């Protein structure tokens, strides 16, 4: 603002600012938006992926291919908005905690505790990335975001603003039992926000052993005589349970309101004991489950005999329970299973890695029964999330895939680049096996990995030349989207030279699917001839300067239109799924970079 404004001009400026403030929201999280260079550059340069071939790891072609993307995570997320829209089951992230320790950058500058804008910068930074991830989650997908006390409240408000229809639960994890000393408190915990749909059961039950099972009386034994605990508040929960030889042999029907047993244990002539939910004072209570639902948990019920009173009662032993919102235990210890574990693998120090088993537990809450789930971590750091997914697959024979995104900066001052010197070597050793610091061999967990870097194509205006360039550089993106990495025929990369595409088409495959990329429409007949005798479904991308529909050109290889009752049936039954490029990519980028 001009320091020499007159009194009248100053009053006008104040009035203008008042009007601007009225336009701002008055409730919720408000911060000063700070422009971010990596976001702004996407207005003229579009991100793509380029594979680093010599970092490929293949141990078993039948196993899924995991991805490690080196680059700014904003650009990686932009690419994934095209390749993995609605496909990701879990997004687990451990973003910068914004402690002021110069451990993250904004516009190429470290943010330290003296930066007056550090909270606004952090919120802008997080907001840009959280907005991009929204379109990646599957319908039942879950976001898990860890944080500490420095930005916990701000993150919670931001999540509520960006995910208004989701349920958000904050779990406390005791990750540092000895604590980090503050001026007034010793901090021994961090937080994990779970963002999920609340209308369905998407968070798994916690599995307990016999030693730590949840054991409770099956009769509602809450203290006091509140009507909520008594028979009159739930008559369908008052019925006899039949016991013989200390085993449950059946369940009776709901008792008539006029029927009142003399006591909780009624012995019949046939030796069967009728058990009723009546306490030691003769108060008629109720079972925890209604008559219509009790048989579904019969296997969890057992008999407890009281020698003193010579009566029996019903005990429920639950080995599957809802997760509590406070997690504690040795496996969550970040020093033992984070710092020390990583040092044992790499022989290198890396600050504040997560406990392997804390990350695995978080992931397992969502994908316990999803053996082909996709897990994304775009703050991958030391690669703990990838390690956790491989560990989980080993435990239950799953084929889950991970996508890790991380930069390659030495932002911890230890001389090691995060992607090349920490994350990638860790994943490589965990997959292939390694020797620990004691010289002991640790068996590999198996798996495959492709290593990519983000790159850019200048696209400052929608010219034909720029569309050709984008198409020529999009091959790896399309292969990642389809999961097809093995090229059929002589490997030849599509390139743009003097505004022209040299390669006519390429074909890639995996065990179940094929991908065709046609760079010249004149090559369609030759391409069709090449795939005519190949059995299996194809995703075919055809270069077009517009948004052309090539269904007529492939009608003979697809289901006949006369046999299809609808367009949906035609598409679902089609052997060839068609997309114009680069328009299919540009459509996504126009949405996110608008």
TrEMBL record:
A biological process (GO) of this protein is: methylation
Q: Which organism was this protein described from?
A: candidate division WWE3 bacterium CG06_land_8_20_14_3_00_42_16
**Protein's name in the database:** Site-specific DNA-methyltransferase
**All copies of domain DNA methylase N-4/N-6, residue ranges:** 88-405
What are the alphabetically sorted keywords of the record? Methyltransferase, Transferase
Q: Which Pfam families match?
A: N6_N4_Mtase
Family membership, please give it. Answer: Belongs to the N(4)/N(6)-methyltransferase family.
**InterPro entries, per the entry:** DNA_methylase_N4/N6, DNA_methylase_N6_adenine_CS, RM_Methyltransferase, SAM-dependent_MTases_sf
Q: Report the SUPFAM superfamilies cross-referenced here.
A: S-adenosyl-L-methionine-dependent methyltransferases (SSF53335)
What would be an example GO MF term here? Answer: DNA binding
């Amino acid at each position: 603002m001009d320091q020499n404004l007159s009194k009248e001009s100053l009053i006008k400026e104040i009035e203008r600012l008042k009007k601007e403030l009225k336009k701002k929201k008055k409730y919720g999280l408000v911060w000063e938006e700070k422009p971010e260079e990596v976001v702004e550059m996407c207005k003229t340069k579009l991100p793509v992926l380029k594979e680093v071939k010599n970092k490929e790891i293949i141990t078993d072609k039948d196993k899924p291919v995991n991805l490690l993307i080196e680059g700014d995570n904003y650009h990686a997320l932009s690419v994934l908005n095209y390749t993995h829209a609605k496909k990701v089951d879990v997004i687990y992230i451990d973003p910068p905690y914004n402690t002021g320790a110069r451990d993250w950058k904004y516009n190429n500058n470290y943010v330290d505790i003296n930066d007056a804008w550090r909270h606004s910068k952090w919120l802008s930074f997080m907001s840009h990335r959280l907005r991009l991830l929204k379109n990646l989650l599957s319908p039942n997908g879950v976001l898990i975001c860890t944080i500490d006390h420095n930005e916990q409240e701000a993150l919670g408000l931001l999540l509520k603003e960006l995910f208004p229809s989701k349920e958000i639960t904050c779990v406390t994890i005791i990750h540092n039992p000895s604590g980090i000393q503050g001026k007034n408190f010793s901090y021994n915990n961090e937080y994990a926000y779970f963002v999920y749909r609340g209308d369905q059961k998407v968070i798994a039950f916690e599995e307990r052993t016999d030693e730590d099972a949840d054991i409770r009386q099956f009769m509602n034994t809450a203290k006091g005589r509140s009507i909520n605990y008594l028979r009159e508040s739930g008559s369908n929960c008052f019925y006899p349970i039949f016991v013989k030889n200390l085993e449950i042999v059946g369940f009776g029907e709901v008792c008539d309101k006029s029927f009142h047993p003399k006591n909780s244990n009624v012995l019949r002539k046939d030796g069967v004991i009728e058990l009723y939910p009546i306490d030691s004072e003769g108060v008629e209570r109720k079972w925890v489950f209604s008559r219509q639902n009790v048989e579904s948990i019969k296997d969890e019920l057992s008999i407890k005999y009281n020698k003193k009173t010579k009566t029996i009662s019903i005990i429920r032993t639950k080995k599957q329970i809802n997760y509590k919102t406070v997690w504690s235990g040795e496996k969550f210890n970040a020093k033992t299973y984070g710092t020390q574990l990583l040092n044992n693998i790499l022989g290198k120090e890396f600050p504040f890695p997560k406990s392997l088993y804390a990350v695995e537990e978080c992931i397992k809450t969502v994908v316990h029964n999803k053996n082909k789930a996709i897990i994304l971590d775009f703050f991958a750091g030391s690669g703990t999330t990838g390690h956790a997914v491989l560990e989980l697959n080993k435990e239950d024979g799953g084929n889950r895939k991970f996508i890790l995104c991380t930069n390659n900066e030495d932002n911890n001052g230890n001389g090691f680049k995060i992607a090349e010197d920490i994350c990638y070597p860790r994943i490589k050793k965990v997959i292939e096996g390694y020797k620990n610091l004691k010289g002991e061999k640790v068996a590999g967990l198996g798996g495959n990995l492709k290593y990519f870097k983000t790159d850019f194509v200048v696209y400052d205006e929608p010219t034909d030349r720029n569309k050709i360039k984008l198409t020529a550089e999009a091959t790896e993106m399309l292969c990642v989207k389809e999961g097809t990495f093995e090229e059929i025929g002589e490997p030849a990369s599509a390139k743009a030279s003097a505004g022209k595409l040299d390669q006519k088409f390429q074909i890639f495959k995996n065990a179940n699917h094929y991908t065709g990329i046609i760079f010249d429409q004149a090559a369609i007949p030759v391409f069709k001839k090449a795939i005519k005798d190949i059995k299996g479904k194809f995703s075919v991308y055809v270069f077009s300067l517009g948004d052309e529909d090539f269904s007529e050109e492939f009608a003979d290889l697809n289901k006949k239109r006369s046999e299809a009752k609808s367009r949906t049936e035609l598409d679902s039954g089609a052997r060839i799924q068609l997309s114009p490029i680069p328009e299919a990519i540009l459509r996504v980028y126009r949405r996110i970079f608008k």
